Every structure is written in C-alpha cells, then in structure tokens.
Recover the amino acids of this structure.
C-alpha cells in the first residue's frame, strides 16, 4: 500500500513543473494534521499530569487493550515524518531519532503546559519508533525526487495553516450537526411545561482510561455501563445559562462514590472550571443560582471500584418557567 502510494506520487511529480510546491503542500498537510490531532482537537483536562515510562504497558497487561491501539497509532503517526525528513535532507538514523524525540517532546510539553493532554513518556518512545520506521521505509523504497528545504518553507506553512482551518471548520460543523440531532432527544425530557436546557453532544465514548462506556439512547436517556479502577470523566454537554435559579436532576438511586452526573462552571478569575453542584446520583436533584451569564459543563463521573449499569436522563430546568 505504502509502495503503491509512493509510485503514484512519484509519477505525478515527475510530470509536473511544480514538484517542489506540490510536495511541500503534502508535507504541510501532514504536519498540520499532526498538530491538530495532538493538540488543537483536544478538550482541556484542567490538570497538569506527567506519566512515567512504560505506564501504558502496565495498563495493557492489566487488560486495557485500548492503550495498545493508542500506542500503535502513535507509531504510525510519525512514520511519514521520518520519511519526509530523509527526503528533505539526507540524515543518519541517529539524527532522525533526535529530531523525532525533540518534536515529540515539544508536543508533550505543550499538552502538559496547556492541559490539552498529559505528558506521556511512552508517547515519545512510540513517536520515535515511528520516525525510524519512516527512515527505514525511505532506505528500502526511496523517492527519486529531492527538494531543498529553503524552497518549501512558505508553501509548507501555508498548506499547514489551510489544513488546520479545514479541521477546525469540520469539527465545528460536526459539533453543530450532532447537537441539532440531539435537540429533539433532549426535548423528550421536557417536564411540566418546563424546557430541558441540557442538550448533550451526542457522541458515545468511554470515560477517560476506563471501561465505562457512555451511550446515547433515542428515547433521550444515557446508558452508563462498565467498570472503572480510577476517578474519571466523560463530558456530555456544554452550555451557557442566563442569570436565574435552576434545578439539575436525572440520575438517582446509586451509591456515593460510584457513578454520578456532575456540573462545573467556568470561573473567569481562576481561569478554570470549578464544581458547581453536588453530584446527582447519590442525591435525586440539586438547585443552584447564577448571578450572571455562565458557561456550564456536564460530565458523567466515575470513581475507583465502580461497576455500573445505569440509565440517566440528565436535565436542567429553569425554575419559575
């Protein structure tokens, strides 16, 4: 597959007078996509975390197969980098490894500083392995085209910027479509003439690094099932609420420190999200008052030792409506 792609691209570039430009655009698209995947498409985790060497394999041996896929993806993602670096300027494998380590460290540090992820030493190792595999692929199947770095800087930067713009636009469109799809489902939870203000995102998924799966059901409910050995979250909604009094409910009858639905608000002074209400689940409902327009996030939260199989209908009603 890789060899066929190379032959096709090589033949195309030989037949054009814009070889440097086209290849620079391809490389820019790649680097723009890597930047999007590793940083810009992520939600803030609001905590600085550093995970030590071989942590992922400890989790894999404990039964978390999702991390095996994640490690494989980190290797695959950097294969083109090793290939392109060798194409742009002939390097020894040690130089490719150093470049991959520096780029990967830069990504991990940015994730750590911005809380757009966590610093994982294992990711640096897997990224470096991927770059070295790309170097090896070039040695086995080199492309008979060599371009100078100076010629590609501007078109590479422009194509990377356009790629990021494309991913941002696609993400916004996808989020809008999903939310519009969830509007009628949220309306199924209107009650006593009151409109449910909590409209979920609509994307199923696992609470981070757990086997607890959150699934949206067509009857307006959310199915939460699986096991967790850690404190973890899955964000289900984000909304802005006007000043007023509200009631939050939709899950009850579960033990404390097992599974719950949580609300947080954004504090502009702290530049962080802060717990707004007690968890519902162990309690039936909770009321809260907002003094100004406030950004709210709703989460499914699970605790260590959680074995859950519950159905929730998280709702926020404005009192007095």
């Amino acid at each position: 597959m890789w060899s066929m792609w190379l032959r096709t691209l090589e033949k195309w570039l030989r037949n054009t007078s814009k070889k440097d430009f086209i290849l620079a655009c391809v490389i820019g698209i790649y680097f723009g996509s890597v930047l999007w995947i590793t940083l810009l498409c992520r939600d803030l985790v609001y905590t600085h975390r550093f995970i030590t060497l071989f942590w992922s394999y400890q989790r894999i041996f404990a039964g978390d197969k999702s991390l095996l896929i994640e490690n494989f993806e980190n290797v695959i993602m950097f294969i083109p980098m090793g290939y392109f670096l060798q194409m742009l300027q002939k390097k020894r494998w040690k130089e490719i490894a150093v470049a991959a380590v520096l780029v990967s460290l830069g990504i991990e540090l940015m994730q750590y500083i911005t809380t757009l992820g966590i610093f994982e030493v294992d990711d640096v190792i897997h990224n470096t392995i991927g770059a070295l595999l790309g170097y090896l692929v070039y040695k086995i199947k080199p492309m008979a085209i060599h371009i100078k770095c100076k010629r590609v800087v501007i078109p590479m930067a422009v194509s990377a910027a356009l790629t990021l713009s494309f991913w941002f636009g696609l993400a916004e469109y996808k989020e809008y479509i999903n939310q519009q799809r969830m509007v009628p489902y949220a309306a199924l939870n209107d009650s006593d003439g009151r409109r449910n203000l909590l409209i979920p995102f609509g994307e199923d998924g696992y609470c981070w690094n757990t086997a607890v799966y959150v699934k949206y059901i067509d009857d307006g409910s959310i199915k939460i099932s699986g096991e967790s050995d850690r404190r973890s979250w899955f964000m289900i909604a984000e909304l802005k609420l006007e000043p007023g009094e509200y009631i939050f409910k939709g899950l009850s009858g579960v033990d404390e420190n097992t599974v719950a639905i949580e609300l947080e608000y954004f504090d502009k002074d702290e530049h962080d999200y802060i717990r707004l209400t007690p968890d519902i689940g162990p309690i039936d409902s909770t009321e809260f008052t907002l003094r100004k327009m406030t950004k709210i996030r709703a989460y499914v939260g699970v605790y260590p030792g959680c074995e859950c199989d519950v159905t929730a209908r998280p709702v926020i009603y404005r009192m007095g409506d």
The chain is about 45% helix and 20% strand. Helices lie at 2-14, 19-40, 55-61, 66-88, 93-114, 121-140, 149-187. The CA atoms of residues 111 and 117 lie 5 Å apart. The radius of gyration is 24 Å.
